[in-house]
Amino acid sequence: MNNLGNATFENYVGLEQGLSEMAYQMVAHVLTLGYAVMLAGLFYFILTIKTVAPRYRTSSVLSVVVMVSAFLLLFAQAGNWTSSFVFDAERGRYFLGDGQDLFNNGYRYLNWLIDVPMLLFQILFVVSLTRSSFSSIRNQFWFSGAAMIITGYIGQFYEVTNFAAFAVWGSISTLFFIHILILMNRVIKEGKEGIPAKAQKVLGTIWTLFFVSWMLYPGAYLMPYLGGLGTDGALFNEIGVVGRQITYTIADVSSKVIYGVLLTVVARYMSIEEGYTDSKE
Ligand code: RET
Predict the structure, then answer these.
(1) pLDDT at position 78, please?
(2) Using one digit for the tens of pLDDT, what is the confidence trace for 155-165?
(3) I need a labelling partner for 124 at 20 to 30 A (CA). Which of 66, 104, 220, 227 fits?
(4) Distance (Å, whole) CA 56 – CA 268
(5) Average pLDDT, rounded, for the chain
(6) Contact in structure between 257 and 33 (CB atoms under 8 Å)
(7) How far is residue 207 from each of residues 47, 51, 181, 204, 247, measured CA to CA in Å?
(8) Cα 196 to ligand 1 centre (Å)
(9) Distances (CA, A) of 206 to 25, 80, 187, 226, 264
(10) What separation in Å is there between the alpha carbon of 112 and the centre of ligand 1?
(11) Is the pLDDT at 280 greater than 70, yes or no?
(12) Is the distance from the beta carbon of residue 210 to the nearest atom of ligand 1 less than 6 Å?
């Protein structure tokens, strides 16, 4: 009898049903795409830093920090995938390797522990708060960001073995998430006051992008049960396994890279408005 301990559902699928060539490769490719985009983003944020006035440059520096940490952790996550499953030529599918690594999304969670506080902090260097205090918002962002991830990290270990623990930790995490959404909404509302219309419009897009992309993470957490509870739900199989990694990758590219690019655009509009120019003429 196999005992997978607190392993996540990817391992149970890999143990019992196995993964088709298509499912296995799609995950390997989407994980590779993920870290490749982070490396490309790294160059973008370095190369565009001088296009904004010095007071906005901390935002680009924080994007660089996010890119480096996400690149390294997604690289490790991709290696974890390929070392966990082995092709079985007799059955024509990939199965959980015997006595090798188990797959776990924990690399991501620990990456978020760095990136979430940075992403939240970053916008404070682009917008000017009219009523709220910078340090109070920053501290609340950091506290709730870290608490949301640590509680979710614990919860994800129980996704198969203890559904009650999985749901309770996930719910606690959600409370911190709601707090973050309320704070971010306030920051963007205040940030829109008194800035050029073009910059206001981009800030509006940032709110939509933020809301949609951050909501994808709890969606990925719940993925095995979105098609029905229990181990016979419609997504407790390779479709759910692939769906989760695609969801994470879309969320990562949107919440880290596109978000950072849009903040650079806002900073650029504000820099121009303030008479900043990076050309030498
Ligand atoms: C968890 C656990 C289940 C409940 C909720 C979660 C929210 C996670 C979020 C993560 C955002 C990560 C980002 C990473 C970028 O680098 C922890 C999955 C609400 C919102 C933006």
Answers:
(1) 95
(2) 999 999 999 99
(3) 220
(4) 9
(5) 95
(6) no
(7) 25, 23, 10, 5, 19
(8) 32
(9) 33, 32, 11, 27, 11
(10) 8
(11) no
(12) no
